[in-house]
Amino acid sequence: MPLSRFVKKSLCNLSVNARCQTVAIMMKQVTGCHPGGLLLVCLTLAVVFMIGVWQDPATHKLITPSPVSVHPLYPSRVPLLDLPGFTYIINNDVCSADVFIIVIIHTHPANRMERDLMRQHIPEEDLRDLGMRRVFLLARAEWEDQELYHKTSQWSINEENLMHHDIIQGNFKEHYHNLTYKHIMGLQWATHYCPHTKFIIKMDDDIAVDLYQFRDKLRTRFWGRKNLILGLMQIEAKPVRNKASKWYVSEKEYPEKYYAPFMSGWAYAMTMDAASAIVAESIKWPYFWIDDVHVTGTLAEKVGVKREGLNRFYTLHVDHLHCCVELPNNADYFCDFLVGPSEGDPDVLGKVWDHARSCYINPCQRRPPEISVSKTCVRAKLPPLAPLGKGHGEIVKVYGPFL
């Protein structure tokens, strides 16, 4: 068999029909089987396979073939809002059928210390015992407009993932205006790779979250609920119209006077069915970059997802967290709050998580109302964040078990 016919036959056996037809036409144009003609074919095919698109000489139409095989963790052409060509740079499959909660954590590529701090103080073994898994959500690091962050190489992120296998990284740019991409990426990833999980907890890497108590609350009070988001509810919050603000929103971007009721992106819990509905709805609406407003407010409202406030278990003041671990006999009591800010202090995160874990290992008591942190903690300064809107009223038991 002439070498040219052998090459054509071999390629056809390995390729889709469109590729075979193109190769056949190309081979007909090569006269004889001499080194120059074969080299021309090989170079042409190399370009074809590298760019993944070519023109069919018979129809003059562009052909974009599907990959011959695709790894399940790295599918091609994953839809993500309006992003063309989205895919995962790093992906991991961490879930199994017995997972109750998947925790997805927004983090910047440069924040290795924050990720390692959480891994140290809330170890993977505890999460597995609780029926939980954890992943960190990153985007692609670019540094020309990120002066506040320490430059971190992709190589070091790959190395970190090889050590811990808990990173999900998308191929869009890391930037606060791209947080909605990251948010939807996380929910979409969870619905695809952890479909049997009951709840998603989304949190930021600088927020102190007592995952042990949060899990118990979801399991005891909200086990049977569906189509639900739980968190720090913001009602009648207004867009920032001050052009000097980092969070300025023009009337063109968001024309309404108030945002739809939404959950603070610090930390919230969402049922998996709610996440699926929000992800499906997300491609129907224009991109809006304030992610918690868009995802848990606008999109949740569009698909009728119920939002319930757990506001009494959130604090805006870091001093409340200090008091949780420093008041007399603190080791005997759970912290009164599930979620609070660290103000960028890793010591706060470490102390709160250590205290939460201690209460998990050696069960603590609830503080009596008369010695609650809110009543006995002396606040050193005003909260760093003013309320975003009207308060969210709730009727609660003063005495009784923690719900």
Automatic annotation (TrEMBL):
<keyword id="KW-1133">Transmembrane helix</keyword>
<dbReference type="InterPro" id="IPR002659">
    <property type="entry name" value="Glyco_trans_31"/>
</dbReference>
<keyword id="KW-0472">Membrane</keyword>
<dbReference type="GO" id="GO:0000139">
    <property type="term" value="C:Golgi membrane"/>
</dbReference>
<protein>
    <recommendedName>
        <fullName>Hexosyltransferase</fullName>
        <ecNumber>2.4.1.-</ecNumber>
    </recommendedName>
</protein>
<keyword id="KW-0812">Transmembrane</keyword>
<dbReference type="GO" id="GO:0006493">
    <property type="term" value="P:protein O-linked glycosylation"/>
</dbReference>
<keyword id="KW-0735">Signal-anchor</keyword>
<comment type="similarity">
    <text>Belongs to the glycosyltransferase 31 family.</text>
</comment>
<dbReference type="Pfam" id="PF01762">
    <property type="entry name" value="Galactosyl_T"/>
</dbReference>
<keyword id="KW-0808">Transferase</keyword>
<feature type="transmembrane region" description="Helical">
    <location>
        <begin position="36"/>
        <end position="54"/>
    </location>
</feature>
<dbReference type="GO" id="GO:0016758">
    <property type="term" value="F:hexosyltransferase activity"/>
</dbReference>
<keyword id="KW-0325">Glycoprotein</keyword>
<keyword id="KW-0328">Glycosyltransferase</keyword>
<keyword id="KW-0333">Golgi apparatus</keyword>
